[in-house]
Amino acid sequence: MPLDAAAYSQILTAALGAGEYADAFHERRLTRSFRLQDGVIHEAGITLTSGVGIRVVSGERSGFAYSDDLSLDALLRTAKVAALIARDGSPRTQSVAMPPASSRATSFYGPAEGTKLSSESKTFVDFLSRADVAARGYDPRVRAVNGLFAEELQEVEIATSDGRFLSDRRPLVTLFVQVVAEGSARGNGVCGDGGRTNLDYFTERTPEDIAREAARIAAVNCEAREAPAGEFEVVVGAGSGGVLLHEAVGHGLEGDFNRQKTSLYSDRVGERVASDLVTIYDDGNLPLERGTLAIDDEGTPGQHKVLVERGILRGYMQDRLNGGLMGVGSTGSGRRQSFRSLPQPRMCNTYMPNGESTYDDIVKSVKKGVFAASFAGGQVEISKGDFVFMVAEGYLIEDGALTAPIRGATLIGNGPDAMTKVTMVGNDTRLASRYYTCVKGGQAVPVGVGMPTVKISHMTVGGSALG
Do 47 and 138 share a domain, yes or no? Predict the structure, then answer.
């Protein structure tokens, strides 16, 4: 894979004809995936992605071009195109000298041998078949099982005009199961796991475990009653409930929205934005998690970031461009989907740490409310913080106990407002099962989400039954 230091020197020298900074992002990604549908392998494929993206920065302007032709002539032409896009004045002449050897950073799983994936196709087929059998055997109401098993190895090299020369190896595995069950209504259930590891992970967290959990959720939902509508106390479940934190709060704390002042958190560092029970972290250094990076896609080491501390906003997630323009530098949050994309400030693994309440105490404190164990997706308006989330698994809470499961529930609210209404935080924090992907600006990247059990004093619940 590597281009040598002399080639990077020529490429970055050509790119700096129009800016004060340039970088080259060289990626090689090998991906293999298998899809299960109706008890058979419906689709299988292997993909090799390889190329270089070259960026030139001049003030607030960025010029970007990419090439999947790795010849030096092609990359020099690509560098000159990026320079022309970024040019805002007279051409400059600058020379870039790269160090003779790379400073190598490795992912938490560690360097793999060669560039091969870790297993043969029959392993994938076996895992999906085991998941199918386990899900169907869990409950006779199961009618359909779909599965995805994917493994990839991404290798990156990053060379920058300020003399950094880094590389990283990033393994990622994912097993995802979706189950449909039919009772009084049709119920759906999903579960997935994996992370920055290899297939050995699934000897402990087995395909059967994942499939049975998806089937359990589907079985619960096929007998659930219609969700009530109205204002309720809401308890958000540990782990998967972190999706609400990611969407309703996390995106509003990304640097580009705040530099452009399109986030309602803009210019509020040091101000109270949540209950004093709320602390929020984003971390690029959590072993195995999907959002973990030894270095981000600009070559900055992954970092632990304190976003909100006891309700006070402490800072934003920054890439090099936005952090530099805001005078704070990068927080290791510059991420891109591939060599064909510009980096953006993005979340890695976003979560809320432990509080002091127990799960039992939180549930017992609710007279009449809704427990949202997990979410199926939603929408957020960054500039206002308004959100709508669909509950994937939910229950009524009556007189301090979980009672009937509910379906069709949505949570409607405002991110900062909801955070000010947090009245209890559990001591059971965990990150969710590792299968989440975040999309921003058309780019998808793997992320981690998590939180403890949290009680919100009141929130609007959308449903078709009267509250």
Answer: yes
